[in-house]
Amino acid sequence: MPEPKILVVDDEKTVVEIHKKLLEKRGYHVIVAYNGAEALTKVASEEPDLVLTDVSMPEMDGLQLCERLKGTKTTRLIPIIMLTAMDDFDNKIRGIETGADDFLAKPVRPRELYARVQSLLRIKNLTDNLESAETVIFSLANAIEAKDVFTKGHTDRVSSLARRIGEYIGMSETETENLEKGGILHDIGKIGIRDTILNKPGKLTDEEFEEIKKHPETGEKICRPLRSLEPVLPIIKCHHERFDGSGYPLGLAGEQIPLPARIVALVDVYEALRSKRAYRDAMPHAEAMAILLRETAESKFDPEVLKKFEEMMNFEPELRQTFGKLRKKPHTPVFP
């Protein structure tokens, strides 16, 4: 296992050398930077496991550095220890507000430094393991999709459109991230379905359709052990529920269906209509929307979600261009 990598940031070279020697004495790999701007460059190139930074520095101070790192998706989980004066209450409060994970008073006491670094690295290791488990799950979702050439890119398009709707209606960053994850994982339960059924070009038998209907609950069971995926479980389980209660697996109706699942349900069908399948060609945007409008009038989809989706697609017409070759002749739609 590689030794943990720690980035030490301070504009005083003497202080940097002291902290570097202390940490190297415990076997850590230490990289250094002398201001916040340089630290950002080092974070991008070196990917440290922890950042130890002073507050007061030229160009970009420690508070600004912390804010930048914690505000960026790829670096927000890197633990940050901020060095402050013993009585610097204001900077501690500002550090908490910008997302600092811990504080050390200057001058640093070695035993306290070691204890705090070790504690935060332990948490970072657990977080990395969790992310690794998530990565396996997402890779599994992609592998399932790759089994059928006609559904290639389906989950990416569903997740992207679902997130865009969330952003359009003003959902929080966390909520839109969950929509994106749910869009990627919504069909992961299909791993339990035979390829002969998944890739069947014709109409499914009643028995085959019953097997298809198991995939939302199977998907939820696959993802349930990961606590980080808990917010997306309702999307995975409920994306085939319908507003009038005619869907599956629970037969939920109206607002009993979680909003994220109502969003993914609509986008899932729109994407399927816009994309080529084994049993039909792709459909143009206008025709797909006409079907969704008709189905919504029959209470299959949330009318408010459809309204916002239609507004968004009219406001951002470039979103209509992300699909495959359009069909050339009329056909009877077959829903996923």
TrEMBL record:
Residues 129-325 form the HD-GYP domain. The keyword Signal does not apply. Residues 5-121 form the Response regulatory domain. SUPFAM superfamilies: CheY-like, HD-domain/PDEase-like. GO terms for molecular function: DNA binding. The modification 4-aspartylphosphate is found at residue 54. Keywords: DNA-binding, Phosphoprotein, Transcription, Transcription regulation, Two-component regulatory system. Gene3D superfamilies: 3.40.50.2300, Hypothetical protein af1432. GO terms for biological process: phosphorelay signal transduction system. The keyword DNA-binding applies. Coiled coil: none annotated. This is Response regulator. It comes from Abyssobacteria bacterium (strain SURF_5).
